[in-house]
Design a protein that fits this description.
heterodimer, A: 166 residues, mainly alpha, rod-shaped, B: 348 residues, three-stranded antiparallel sheet, 57% helix, disordered N terminus
């Protein structure tokens, strides 16, 4: 121990203390702080860049997924639109058919009714004409029949004979 | 690498017996481990037996009833007495002592310790000069790195590319796991500074020009003391409670544990100080001894074996340089982490 501290030099100690503390302070101000700050900045920058790259990748994936979804949706929509259109077409055709049938039915029944009416009118006219013709004929027949006396008497006698028989 | 300040002539090394050589080597190594007042690069002997020193002097600053400022060249590498403003100073065993006159007698007690007065010595010694150098290098290196971030959109340029992983290692592997995500930020400056300081200083110790700063107890004490002060001042209620009134143990145990825990707070930084000092010093002694063995063996088998060993050891020392910096930083972070640990459920 004596050997150890016999070599102790106060002057060296004082110089070392002064120089070393000055070195710490100077290096702190001019070197360590800027160096460590720069390194930190750079590390932060790299970290941020990596993070944002990761984020961009994720976003890209999301975007792709979105696109896929949109495409799917669009497809589904098209499908449903087509289906709707088909349905509508069918319905329209159906409706048109029904309407046409209805109209045709109406027309037919109208025609039938008018035919019936015409027929009735024709029959009525025919009847009246037949009646007047019959009357005319009867008139003529009667006139011809009753032109001489014999015949008139014969008729009356036959008629009376009929009436008796009855 | 070779530099002695008391002017041992290497003639002894060449002519003396083997035992002489060994003593010489031992002294040489111990001198090399000590601080010195001038920045010597190497020394050599001229033909007429004179030792020439290559290097440059450093300023000596003494406080001895007034400020005394002169260049270390006045000591002539410890051989002469320096006279400043009527006072005389002499270097003895790498320390400055006040002597009475130009003759420069050093009085020794029975333990061969000098009893002369020692002035307060704030000299820019070789170690202090190296700390200055490391200070400047670290400051401009990391300031430049910080500026390159600004210019280059938060990306490092040049040397920053090498340093950034180390800075991040200190943050992610030392500070955050030991202190926790919440509190680690305020300790980063200290941890980074101490890591790079100890590392660079240790590396300088392995270069031929340098001498190791961390094999001075004053330096490691200073570092450990700062760790201790930061730990103590950032200790929260939970930390102090665990020291003085350990929860979850019976009262007599609490009373026994309190002084032990309190002592523990001093032992931790003390161990930090000794660990760094001892590792670096031991490494240097071993490395230099093996280098010295090359000259002692003085035959090509032994010397070349020593060379290989020295080479391997030098590489190991490179590893130790960074390992000790790492250990110091990790343990400091661990102590800070203990001090700021939040109270959690009775898991202890």
């Amino acid at each position: 121990m004596e050997e150890l501290f016999g070599g102790f030099s106060l002057g060296l100690f004082v110089w070392q203390a002064i120089l070393f503390i000055a070195l710490i302070l100077l290096l702190k101000k001019f070197a360590w702080k800027p160096i460590l700050d720069s390194v930190n900045d750079r590390e932060e920058g790299i970290k941020n860049a990596l993070e944002s790259a990761e984020k961009a990748k994720l976003e890209m994936q999301n975007l792709q997924a979105d696109n896929q979804k949109l495409l799917k949706e669009a497809r589904a929509e098209r499908e449903s639109m087509l289906k709707d259109a088909r349905d509508m077409k069918n319905k329209m055709i159906e409706d048109a058919k029904d309407e046409a049938n209805e109209a045709a039915g109406k027309l037919i029944s109208q025609a039938q009714a008018s035919i019936e009416a015409e027929k009735k009118a024709a029959i009525a006219e025919l009847k009246s004409q037949v009646a007047s013709l019959s009357i005319e004929i009867a008139e003529k027949v009667v006139r011809a029949e009753l032109s001489n006396k014999d015949k008139q008497e014969k008729l009356v006698e036959s008629m009376l004979g009929d009436a008796k028989l009855n | 690498m070779s530099y002695g300040q008391e002017g041992h002539s290497e003639d002894h090394l060449l002519e003396g017996s083997k035992a002489d050589k060994e003593t010489e080597m031992k002294e040489y190594i111990l001198h090399h481990l000590k601080d010195s007042y001038d920045f010597g690069l190497y020394s050599y002997d001229t033909d007429n037996g004179e030792t020439k020193y290559v290097g440059f002097p450093l300023p000596v600053i003494l406080w001895d009833g007034g400020l005394k400022l002169f260049m270390s060249s006045k000591f002539h590498h410890g051989e002469e007495v320096a006279e400043v403003g009527g006072d005389y100073y002499k270097v003895y065993h790498a320390k400055i002592y006040k002597v009475d006159g130009p003759k420069g007698t050093i009085n020794l007690d029975e333990h061969h310790h000098a009893t002369n007065a020692k002035p307060l010595d704030f000299s820019i010694t070789k170690n202090v000069a190296l700390i200055f150098m490391v200070f400047v290098i670290l400051f401009f290196m990391f300031k430049g790195m910080a500026q390159s971030y600004k210019k280059n959109n938060n990306l490092p340029m040049g040397i920053g590319r090498i340093l950034e992983p180390i800075v991040l290692y200190v943050r992610d592997e030392i500070a955050i796991p030991n202190i926790g995500e919440k509190h680690y930020k305020k300790y980063m400056s200290y941890l980074l500074t101490v890591f790079f300081f100890v590392w660079i200083v240790n590396l300088f110790g392995l270069t031929p020009i340098g001498m190791n700063v961390t094999n001075n107890i004053a330096v490691t004490l200073c570092l450990a003391l700062i760790t201790y002060i930061i730990t103590t001042f950032s200790g929260n209620k939970n930390y102090w409670k665990h020291i003085f009134w350990m929860p979850g143990v019976p009262v007599p145990m609490k009373i026994i544990l309190a002084p032990i825990e309190l002592l523990g707070t001093f032992i931790k930084p003390f161990a930090l100080m000794i660990r760094l000092y001892a590792n670096i010093t031991a490494g240097h002694i071993v490395l230099m001894s093996i280098i010295g063995m090359m000259f002692i063996f003085n035959n090509w088998i032994g010397s070349s074996l020593s060379f290989v060993l020295a080479f391997v050891l030098a590489i190991l020392e490179l590893l130790v340089a960074v390992l000790q910096a790492y250990i110091f930083t990790v343990l400091s972070a661990l102590y800070f982490g203990m001090a700021v640990e939040e109270h959690h459920d009775e898991a202890h």
